[in-house]
Write a structure and sequence with these properties.
The protein is an alpha/beta fold. It has two domains: 199 residues, Rossmann fold, CATH 3.40.50; 168 residues, 3-Layer(aba) Sandwich (Rossmann fold), CATH 3.40.50.460. It contains 13 helices and 15 strands. It has a five-stranded mixed β-sheet, sandwiched between helices. A four-stranded parallel β-sheet has the order 7-8-6-11, sandwiched between helices. α1 runs parallel beside α11. The longest helix is centred in the middle third of the chain and has 21 residues. The radius of gyration is 22 Å and the shape is elongated. It binds 6-O-phosphono-beta-D-fructofuranose (F6P). 6-O-phosphono-beta-D-fructofuranose binds next to loops.
């Protein structure tokens, strides 16, 4: 079999450690030069393949590729761009295959979440039907931690650590002046349908009763009366109240507390702004002074406080993806398998893409406390190992030193343009 090149693309919201997966892919492929030619990356994700805008990662030094482990964001660019079904938009798939053929690409590594695994699955099926089989391997990534089968998703451990640390630190700040000033602090975190990140806020508490005093999960329909009663009681007994709210918190009828009215390319409602809604509700009904913060992109880019466990797992799934492809596996995704909680032990397993695509794993009931406002011991047992270990980047002049790749374009081979 002639040596094929590989195509790697980052997809969807980026994380503090997605580049560690890229590093795992590229370093492992470089160790198997007899089987894999070059690794091309898509500039801005799959859009790079459609527009034949490929990046030649062989132009990057081993040192810069290794430094990807420390850099947040998507080193090659990412996108939210949904490939439709074959019947709806055959031209898109034909174009992908045309570009793959032109550049002798035989392996497709797609680093993303639920929607991306669906795309990778479709490409694996369509390549075959168009007479150009492609080995497609998904690489899990999402701060939302909502992919099924895998015990957890690379990207989540670091965002969870950032939220746990920030909640702890902000709580100490609020407590300092709570007698005369701010009584309520609200931190908004990501996670549109699953409350994994919100739950991670619970790790800020060392002892029962510590902040955060209230967590609002998407899995628990919002009950204003119960919520306000809990805020009041907490302020009366502790003098302050720290609330972590998921952007996906919603009313019993399914309406988001923070529906911003916009939709993205996947038709998802764009969220943001639940913290001011909740804070103002407290102020209007209880009169307490508040501060709030929207962690937003700060949480998923916080590489300076990344979890070592998360970093190791992000690298491991990138490496495993290449190994799987070389073993002739197709339409699969490496998953993280938990072997024990304490000591925490994990390994890499395998899932069929068809079983992962478009499915969301929400927080189990057993991880949410009876009153719906906190996490249980089981939740803590699950979450804690994922945030463990510090993986500080190198610093220079007081800020982290993050690599910027050259991202040299591969010369185009096709005459035709493709409009996305
Ligand atoms: O997919 C991860 C995620 O970070 C979600 O938690 C969040 O709602 C969304 O991405 C934000 O998406 P975007 O960056 O496209 O606005």
């Amino acid at each position: 079999m002639s040596r094929k090149n590989a195509f790697y693309a980052q997809s969807g919201g980026v994380t503090a450690v997605i580049n560690a997966s890229a590093c795992g892919v590229i370093e492992t492929a470089r160790q198997h030069r007899d089987k894999i030619g070059k690794v091309y990356a898509g500039r801005d994700g799959i859009i790079g393949a459609l527009t034949e805008d490929l990046i030649d990662t062989s132009k990057e030094s081993a040192r810069d590729i290794a430094a990807l482990k420390f850099a947040p964001g998507g080193a090659f660019g990412s996108c939210r761009y949904k490939l439709k079904g074959l019947e709806e938009n055959r031209a898109q798939y034909e174009r992908l295959i045309e570009v793959f053929k032109a550049h002798n690409i035989g392996y497709f590594f797609y680093n993303g979440g639920n929607d991306s695994m669906d795309t990778a699955h479709k490409v694996s099926q369509i390549g075959k039907s168009l007479g150009y089989p492609i080995t497609c391997v998904g690489i899990p990534k999402t701060v939302d931690n909502d992919l099924p089968i895998t015990d957890n998703c690379p990207g989540f451990g670091s965002v969870a650590k950032y939220i746990a640390v920030s909640t702890k630190e902000a709580a100490m700040d609020v407590l300092s002046m709570s007698r005369t000033s701010t009584k309520v602090f609200v931190l908004e975190v990501m996670g549109r349908h699953a409350g994994w990140i919100a739950a991670a806020g619970g790790l800020a508490a060392d002892n029962p009763g510590d902040a955060p005093h209230i967590i609002l999960f998407p899995e628990v329909p919002f009950n204003q009366e119960k919520f306000l009663a809990k805020v009041k009681k907490t302020v009366e007994t502790k003098s302050y109240c720290v609330i972590v709210v998921s952007e996906g918190a919603s009313y019993p009828d399914g309406r988001f507390l923070a529906d911003a009215g916009n939709k993205d390319a996947f038709g998802h409602v764009q969220l943001g702004g639940v913290a001011p809604v909740v804070a103002q509700m407290v102020r209007d009904n209880l009169g307490y002074k508040f501060h709030y913060a929207v962690a937003d992109y700060l949480q998923r880019s916080a590489r300076h406080i990344a979890s070592q466990t998360d970093l190791d797992q992000a690298y491991a799934v990138g490496k495993a993806a290449v190994k799987m492809a070389l073993a002739g596996k197709n339409a699969v995704m490496p998953v993280i398998v938990r072997k024990s909680d304490s000591p925490y032990r994990w390994g890499i397993g395998e899932a069929k893409l068809g079983r992962v695509a478009n499915k969301e794993k929400i927080l189990p009931k057993s991880y949410i406390s009876k009153d719906g406002f906190g996490i249980t011991a089981a939740g803590r047992r699950y979450l804690e190992p994922l945030i463990k270990g510090e993986a500080y980047p190198p610093y220079k002049n007081g800020t982290p030193r993050y690599v910027r790749l050259k991202n040299v374009a591969v010369p185009k081979k096709l005459d035709s343009d493709f409009v996305i």
